[in-house]
Amino acid sequence: MENKGTLTKILASAGTVLVWIPILAPISFSLIFLVQRQLFRFDYLMPAELGLFAFGGGILLLAAAIRTHSHMKLIGWGLVVAFVMILGGQALAEVTGLADGSTEIGGWQWALVLSSLVIYVLGIVDVGVGGILLLRDLFKPQQLMQSH
Q1: Considering the entire predicted model, what is its pTM?
Q2: What is the pLDDT of residues 14-70, one digit of tens each?
Q3: CB atoms within 10 A of CB 108
Q4: How far apart are CA 69 and CA 64, in angstroms?
Q5: Which residues contact 82 (CB under 8 A, 6 or more apart)?
Q6: What is the reported pLDDT for 148?
Q7: Confidence band (pLDDT; 50, 70, 90) for 147?
Q8: How many whole angstroms separate alpha carbon 65 and alpha carbon 53?
Q9: How far is residue 108's CA from residue 115's CA, in Å, rounded to a whole number?
Q10: Quick one: CA torsion of 147, 6, 126, 82, rounded to 10 degrees?
C-alpha cells in the first residue's frame, strides 16, 4: 500500500459512507416505520433512486483505491456491474413497456427488470465492502519492525 495520507483517508471514508447510504436508507426507514406504526414497508426501488450517492461514493473509493493500489478490482468491477445493471434495467423497463405502464407488473418482464435491480444492489454492496476493506487497510496501525 503506497499512499496512506490524509487525502486518501478522506476519499475512502466519504466514499464508503456515500456508497452505503442507498443500501442502509431503505432498511433504516423500514425499521423506523415498523417501530412507529407496527407495519412493515420496504421501498425496494430506493437504492436505485439514491444511485447518485452510490456512484459518487464509488468514484471517491476508486480514486482512493488507485492511490493506494489496494482493492482496485473489487471496487472498479463493482462500479461497472452496478452502472451496467442500472442502465440495462432502465432500458429493459422501457423496451418491455413497464416504464410507461403499457405492461402490467408481473410476468417475465417484471422479473427481468427486478433481476437487474438486484444485481445493481449486489454491485453497490460489492463496492461498499471494498470501501470497508480499504478503510481497514488505511487505518491499520503500521507494524513495527522488531530486531531479533
Answers
A1: 0.88
A2: 999 999 999 999 999 999 999 999 999 999 999 999 999 999 999 999 999 999 999
A3: 8
A4: 8
A5: 51, 54, 55, 58, 120, 123, 124, 126, 127
A6: 44
A7: very low
A8: 18
A9: 10
A10: -150
Q: Across the chain, which distance is largest between two alpha carbons, in Å? A: 75
pLDDT digits (tens, 9 = 90+) for 72-117: 999 999 999 999 999 999 999 999 999 888 888 888 999 999 999 9
Cα 53 to Cα 45: distance, rounded to the nearest angstrom:
14
Please identify which residue in the block is written with the cell numbers 468491477.
77
CA distance 77 to 12: 17
C-alpha cell at 100: 410507461
Whether the CB-CB separation of 28 and 41 falls below 8 Å is answered with no
